[in-house]
Amino acid sequence: MSIDYFLNLPATSLIAISSASAVIITNIIGFFLCYRKLEPMEALLDKCRLVAFHNSYWGNSPRERMMRLCAVYVAIALPRINVRRGVIDLQQVQAFPRRTKLMLHGTALTGLAGMIGLVVIYFA
Description:
It is a single chain. The longest helix has about 35 residues, at about 10-45. This protein has one domain. By secondary structure, it is mainly alpha-helical. It has helices at about 5, 10-45, 50-55, 60-75, 80-85, 90-95, 100-124. Helices cover about 80% and strands about 0% of the residues. Keywords: Membrane, Transmembrane, Transmembrane helix.
């Protein structure tokens, strides 16, 4: 099997393969973040009520760790809305490491692109 065979597939097949790959990669990175980086991220946002609540409410199963990671991402991705609600500390969010922010944003956008591709293929 050569690269020519792969490139000559129909466009719908290429979109489906790339979208499924994006979703799989997003899940792998998400599990890595949940099990390697979640506690340090929560420690950096210890004054944020949103993160502290989710840290105390959810446990350590994979689903619950993913919920805690989502709470961290919401605190990072939507700082203005959360400051108005009074659930985060803006100084801690601004001091959050840029590289980790980019990793969270990249993971979310990759997953979103993969899901949009799968929806387009499904309804086409």
